[in-house]
From TrEMBL:
Phylogenetic lineage: Bacteria, Bacillati, Cyanobacteriota, Cyanophyceae, Gomontiellales
Protein name: mRNA interferase
Function in brief: Toxic component of a type II toxin-antitoxin (TA) system.
InterPro entries in the record: PemK-like, Plasmid_toxin/cell-grow_inhib
SUPFAM superfamilies: Cell growth inhibitor/plasmid maintenance toxic component
Pfam families (alphabetical): PemK_toxin
Parts forming coiled coils: none
Assigned EC number: 3.1.-.-
Origin species: Chamaesiphon polymorphus CCALA 037
Keywords, comma-separated and alphabetical: Endonuclease, Hydrolase, Nuclease, Toxin-antitoxin system
Length: 125
């Protein structure tokens, strides 16, 4: 997790992220050995204030390979064939990786899965 690539998001439909843009790979190392990766898009457009809790701001630096202030859109994970990966740009620093993980954990409700499974089990008892 945390590798930054230029990714081709086209073709897209409706409100899906479009065009070739930077993205971070969020799928795990084992999953990435397959032909697909899960990414989060990066945008240079300042997000609507309602989205600020679910984006991670990035400043360009030598390690991430970005050339403008940007934002990781953590509520738009997409799984693509690796052929959409155009060029490796750099790496996300560990603090930003942790921010992304925290937002994803909340967005995907990963911390509440155990409780929900218990609730489902109660239905069958």
């Amino acid at each position: 997790m945390g590798s930054i690539w230029l990714v081709n998001f086209d073709p897209s439909i409706g409100t899906e992220i479009r065009k070739t843009r930077p993205a971070i790979i969020v799928s795990g190392t084992l999953f990435n050995q397959r032909r697909k990766v899960t990414v989060l898009p990066i945008t240079s457009s300042v997000p609507d204030s309602r989205l600020l809790p679910v984006v991670v701001p990035l400043e360009p630096d030598s390690s991430n390979g970005l050339n403008t202030d940007s934002f990781i859109v953590c509520i738009d994970p997409t799984t693509f064939d690796k052929r959409r990966l155009v060029k490796h740009l750099g790496l996300l620093n560990i603090d930003k990786v942790r921010q992304v993980q925290s937002i994803l954990r909340s967005y995907l409700e990963l911390d509440s899965v155990d409780n929900e499974l218990e609730d489902v089990e109660d239905l069958f008892n």
